[in-house]
Amino acid sequence: MSEFTLKGRHVAMIFGLGFGIIIAVNLTLAYNAVRTFPGLETKNSYVASQTFNADRAAQEALGWQASAVIQDDFLVLRFDTVNGPAMPTITKATLGRATHVGEDRTPVFAWDGEAYVAHVPALGAGKWDLRLEAVADDGTRYRRRFEMEHRL
């Protein structure tokens, strides 16, 4: 039986292989992070910031207490006011994950007299976001992101 001797070239190969694995994993993670990133909220944040305070004040002046929950296979969206439920026009709604767009869907809401309800079958467990844009009867734009948790 021969005895193995660890030489300098063996140590260099071990180090090279170790760092090669680390670099390959980092490149794979970086590629997947960029590939699945949902994108920007706004194209020009400076322009959006110019009207942010006025838009927020107008939205708060509506007096809506909005909520969104996932119940079984349904997404329930409520706009409550001191005078009862509000029924704004929903212009855009996207239900998806915060981390990627692979599971994004556009819910189709129906008014049931008190809230908007959308059938959303086959939602996986975990955190979901509803990105919503609506317009009040007076023309005020309402934008909000609701964070929800779905448990199976």
Automatic annotation (TrEMBL):
Highest taxon above the source species: Bacteria
Keyword Transmembrane helix in record: yes
Entry-linked InterPro entries: FixH (IPR008620)
Pfam family of the protein (one): FixH
Keywords: Membrane, Transmembrane, Transmembrane helix
Membrane spanning residue stretches: 12-34
Name by which UniProt lists this protein: FixH protein
Source organism per UniProt: Marinibacterium profundimaris
